Structure formats: structure tokens, C-alpha cells
């Protein structure tokens, strides 16, 4: 009986540590820093907000975007995103299209060693974001 007590304490301690892991938060905006292997164009502003109702939205650099999302554990997926239709400089429009296409490929999320949220596709590099 006394041998089981240290194991029970160790298990409780480890369970407590697991809850200290960063969590993807709803109703919080994240600022995009990288899309795959490329950083954003200087002074462009892309954001992702996960609403509690299963909808995500934000700014895609030129237009506002929106999509449904599913979150279960470390799995996350987005429905095909829609957006407003404003025209901007060609480089911003290309970046926006890369971002919206990358969102459609996202399969899971995690946080890296420096606290960035990473949205991972099935293969390739993630979208990297900072909490605002």
C-alpha cells in the first residue's frame, strides 16, 4: 500500500504538468508571421481569430476572411475560407491567396519552443502565429 502512494503522487504531478501546456484559445486573435517557408511581406497584417461558435475569421492582408473550423485535441481543420473582394497590390493578393490556400490544408496545431502557434498541413511547413 505504501509503495503505491509515491506512484500515485507522481501520476498526479505529471497530470498537473500536462494542463500547463499552452492551449489554443478561442476568442483570441493570433497574428500570422510565416506562411510555410516564407515570412510575410513587410508591414502586411494577417490574423486568425478562433470564435467559440466554430467560426474562424481575420484579416488576410487585403481582405477579411472567414471559415468554419473543427477543433478536437491537437487536430484542427478549416472549411474552405471565404473573403471580401477588395483588390490590393499584386504581391499582397498573392500572399493572401497563399494564406487562404494554406488554411484549407491545416490538419493539426501545436506551439513551438518560443511560444508561436503553429498550424500544420498534412505535409510541409506550418503557418506560424503569435498571440496578439
TrEMBL record:
InterPro entries in the record: DUF306_Meta_HslJ, HslJ-like_sf, Hsp_HslJ-like
Native source species: Ectopseudomonas composti
Presence of keyword rRNA processing: no
Keyword terms, alphabetized: Signal
Protein name according to UniProt: DUF306 domain-containing protein
Domain DUF306, chain residue ranges per copy: 26-126
Leader peptide range in chain numbering: 1-20
